[in-house]
């Protein structure tokens, strides 16, 4: 695939995200994607053989870019406590600044069906989750370095923290509320991971 083809394909993916966020899964067509970027619908179908193929690619694109956003946001922090704080702040900021991606993601997960007719959110996924693995890596590093409590249940903490972060996905409450939520979540986590806690 040439550079121009890759650029055009990414343009279509971004247009699909924007369109999906506005009109929803059921109304999404190659035609309204094409209209958003002023191209012929046949060009969209040339790059994506079906609506389902497009949506799977959107799903991967959104998750990969979210992971990259968080990785970039914490890369300049080196100690486990710094990286944990940055992880939470950057993850919550992602939800504030990427509303179209969040809406599109939810539309896909709750509406798209697998070959056996099940919604994606109902599937048991054994694939590694890069964001969860990143979080758990930070916690395990802190335990090894002795700056986090050695009795931390890493899996439970990961579920609670990332679950809390993802609950903010579609809330449009503004920076002030987001900052308050961040402070409360950090306070709770810091109390739990404090060395010496029994």
From TrEMBL:
InterPro entries: Homeodomain-like_sf, HTH-type_TetR-like_transc_reg, HTH_TetR, KstR2_TetR_C, Tet_transcr_reg_TetR-rel_C_sf. Coiled coil: none annotated. Residues 6-66 form the HTH tetR-type domain. The keyword Transferase does not apply. Residues 29-48 bind DNA. PROSITE patterns: HTH_TETR_2 (PS50977). Pfam families: TetR_C_24, TetR_N. Keywords: DNA-binding. This is TetR/AcrR family transcriptional regulator.
């Amino acid at each position: 695939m040439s550079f121009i083809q890759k650029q055009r394909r990414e343009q279509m993916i971004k247009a699909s995200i924007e369109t999906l966020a506005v009109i929803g899964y059921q109304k999404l067509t190659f035609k309204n994607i094409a209209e958003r970027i002023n191209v012929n619908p046949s060009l969209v179908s040339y790059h994506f053989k079906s609506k389902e193929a497009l949506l799977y690619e959107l799903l991967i694109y959104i998750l990969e870019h979210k992971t990259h956003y968080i990785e970039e946001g914490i890369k300049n922090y080196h100690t486990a406590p710094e990286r944990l704080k940055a992880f939470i702040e950057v993850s919550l900021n992602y939800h504030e600044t990427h509303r179209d991606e969040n809406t599109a993601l939810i539309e896909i997960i709750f509406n798209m069906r697998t070959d056996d007719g099940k919604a994606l959110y109902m599937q048991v996924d054994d694939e590694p989750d890069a964001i969860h693995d990143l979080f758990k890596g930070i916690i395990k590093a802190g335990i090894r370095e002795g700056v986090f409590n050695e009795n931390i249940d890493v899996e439970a903490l990961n579920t609670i923290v990332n679950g809390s972060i993802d609950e903010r996905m579609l809330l449009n409450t503004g920076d002030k509320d987001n900052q308050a939520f961040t402070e409360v979540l950090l306070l709770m986590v810091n109390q739990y991971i404090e060395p010496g806690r029994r």
